[in-house]
Amino acid sequence: MTDPSSRETADSDATDGEEDAIRTVTERIDHEETIDLLRELVRIRSPYFEEDAISEFVFDWLDARNLDPERHPVSEPALTGFEGNNVLARLDGSDPDAPTLLLNAHMDTVKIVEAWEEDPLSGRVEDGKLYGQGACDMKGGLAGIMTAFDALADADLAGSVIFTAVVDEEGPYGLGANQLLRDGITDECDAAVVTEPGPILAQEDIENPALLLGARGRFLYDISVAGKAAHGSQPDKGVNSVADAGRLAAAFEDLAVGSHEQLGDGSVCPLQIEGGGETLSVPEACRLLVDRHVVVGETEDVVRADAERLVEDLDLGSDVEIDFREAPAPDVRYGPYVTDPDEPLVGALTSGVEAVTGEEPAIGYFSSVGDFNYFGHRADLPTVIVGPDGENIHGAGEFVYTDEVVEVARIVAGGCVSLLG
Ligand SMILES: [Zn+2]
Questions:
Q1: Phi first, then psi: what are they for 264, rounded to 5°?
Q2: Rounded distance from Cα 109 to ligand 1 centre (Å)
Q3: Burial status of residue 327 (CB atoms within 10 A of its CB: 0-12, 13-18, 19 or more)
Q4: Residue 221 shares a structural domain with residue 210
Q5: How many angstroms separate the alpha carbon of residue 162 from the centre of ligand 1?
Q6: Are 19 and 164 in a shared domain?
Q7: d(CA 351, ligand 1 centre) in Å
Q8: pLDDT tens across 181-194, in order?
Q9: Are 196 and 119 part of one and the same domain?
Q10: How many separate domains does the chain show?
Q11: CA of 240 to the centre of ligand 1 (A)
Q12: Alpha carbon of 106 to ligand 1 centroid (Å)
């Protein structure tokens, strides 16, 4: 109930009017319904490349609420042979000149980890934590945008919302989000919100409520090292590719990487040396994989030149060819991005956070990569991550804090009202 005196104040002040509109929408988001939905999502097994069941569930859930969902086909014949469906839905605003906001979550999880000591898809709730593989990354955020989108359906917004639940974020190429770019969905949008788990994966030590305004990017070096085979008892007669790859891996660890005021430092991690293995031969050839997380300014050319310089300085006996992991297309890369805090989206989500929690959001930056890099870097949209936290992400015992799931749903709904109202 609104008391008449406060209503008078609200009418006399645009900001209070917005607060009322935010309150109306956020109050439609029910804690129990949101967590029941989350539990249902967690109970559907959906490792990447196996999203048919959850995709149909999300479609049916929206359809049952007359939200006109569509199946958006995703196809990648070249490398993975993957075929699947994103789920899209739209709320068209009344003003064609008002902005359009992309709401995004992924439906897939990592492969189910074997070390679970209970059913990894139980959705069990205890002490405000909901357990299950993918509960935090990111079925909590998915439930959040589903309930937020439903709550916004009756809000009569001037701007528009495009809901996107995508496949294959945890897989190698982010094929679902990539398809949104390929098919021009992101061209229709002015900004993007992704409800990935937040502070736990931030560069900084922060807590929710938080807005993450950028992310580092990533390259995966795929380096061929070609030596010369010889009898293993006479190593001097060969060129040992594995030993050279080891020297190069060690040199990568000492590489001076870029630094950025918001994104922090880049990082390098040698991941794998694969090759050799003959019983008694100097290994002729091997392959070295090195992860490189980058900040703004560390382009492909920079990253390639760094590796070439290391090779040159080491003066190895092997021939070394620097390349990057194969991708479905040259532009399918995770570039770094930073969203300007003065963007209207950041202000709108800040209003959402304040209305829902009474606090100012902490500001941070994501440490690794995800679909948000495609929106923030490739599509060049102001992109903000706001998501519920938990623990044991990608591991056994993964859980999400239920209160934060509901909070994020309300923050997103409130932010939409503020931005698009
Ligand atoms: Zn995720």
A1: 80, -150
A2: 7
A3: middle
A4: no
A5: 19
A6: yes
A7: 25
A8: 999 999 999 999 99
A9: yes
A10: 2
A11: 40
A12: 7
